[in-house]
């Protein structure tokens, strides 16, 4: 590097024409590639092994040395897993909850974000501060009371009007979805984005007699598509991954989500690795596909989360 | 309501109260738009936190109707509880190891990828894949890799001659926590990398050109330009990662169930068993506030320590 620097200072015009071969640079580049390749192998190995194992027969899976390339790949494990773990149900539950929560959050957050960004009304700043304040409270603190609140929701799950006698929203889709319906993080992100929408546009619409809801739905929302997309992907993958909450409130088999179903499989010592690897592939594939298709939004989402 | 009333235009002072009310009525739809959000926050955050606080002063086995008031007993029990102390220690070990490792390796990969190399996009995707993998799946796959008899890890360590007999990764009290930490690092490095890459790209190229002309070599430029200018990024990552690490649960639940010999029982795992296995709700609520206090203190300290260095 020093060679380059000195050359530039002495004869800036000539360097490009007769630059000597940069040995130090070349060795450095080679070293970089080497380190990256080694790291890449370590990072990707668990995936390759998971996919490979899912296609192998049990007897081949336990063979030493490990068979990276299946000797006779087949989908038998998947078929078996579909039968044994009722994976269709797990998959449906995961998808249903993740999609519903995502839409729910986008709806509540975009309405709130529009209001905080573009309206003036008494109490706005206090309410916005309150919203931001909820982000500081860790889920652990609200988890136990939320569990008890759900148990006492009146008229549901066998409860009377005082919320007694049954299990309320515990062990139900309601309980899986509703408490996650508002996200302060989503509101904050969308509000930041919406403040960039020019006020003139909204005022023009107001003069033309458009209602606030129409301005929100037909002007602001279409302009916020990139932010909404990034948020939707974030929220979906977070929900797809969600484990703790379903673990706490779901008790019946019919409501288990994919992570919960697979985790209970492992913890109950049913170490049927062939089936588990098949299940893992099934659970990973959707998020990986979503990620590969919408990579740009993922990266933008991270950049939007207050980094720049 | 009065806090932002001052911000309202054309509010005559003597009739202030009435005009606030008029403004509220005029802007009624704003409150309607906020209603779903505020209702959810009111129930599941405001009421919930208050209820948790109330619970922490009571003893309640969820199955019984009586909830006797016990004053500060739950909190004094917390201080004397050896199992909770153990859980704090385990959590601190986990945090102290996993956060610097994840951020360090993430920074290393980001720097390497930033060196104008080929296949950069491809490699970035590859390193990010563990991040999008569901945590439960990562834990399951790694549990299988750690398997004492057939695990891939033991196979290659034996092949390379690094160990002479298979290690019982997850059932050896001294190895279980390191094993969990390795999994966490593998899962988290990609996130640190992407954040650092974004940080690196915001450093102007001119700084490096100027340093080159002044004769600063690569290491010097890294130490005096890159690292200092990444302080903001590092701070952000440190705060987020420490908060996450202090709440570790899923890996523990799947890979070790808190064992062996409670060596991997972390705070949240302990809260989980206290609340939903032993149904000791009041005590678990007190623990949750203990964790909250810890998280708060950690964040404050990090902000304080880093603030001195972040000015440029």
UniProtKB/TrEMBL annotation, chain B:
UniProt-listed Pfam families: BPD_transp_1
Compartments where located: Cell membrane
Primary location: membrane
Ranges of residues in domain ABC transmembrane type-1: 88-302
Signal peptide boundaries: none
Membrane topology: Multi-pass membrane protein
Gene Ontology, cellular component aspect: plasma membrane
Record flagged with keyword Metal-binding: no
Homology family: Belongs to the binding-protein-dependent transport system permease family.
Record CDD domains: TM_PBP2
GO BP annotation list: transmembrane transport
InterPro entries, alphabetized: ABC_transporter_permease, MetI-like, MetI-like_sf
Listed transmembrane segments: 28-54, 92-113, 125-145, 175-198, 229-249, 281-301
Official protein name in the record: ABC transporter, permease protein 1 (Cluster 1, maltose/g3p/polyamine/iron)
Top-rank lineage group of the source organism: Bacteria
Keywords: Cell membrane, Membrane, Transmembrane, Transmembrane helix, Transport
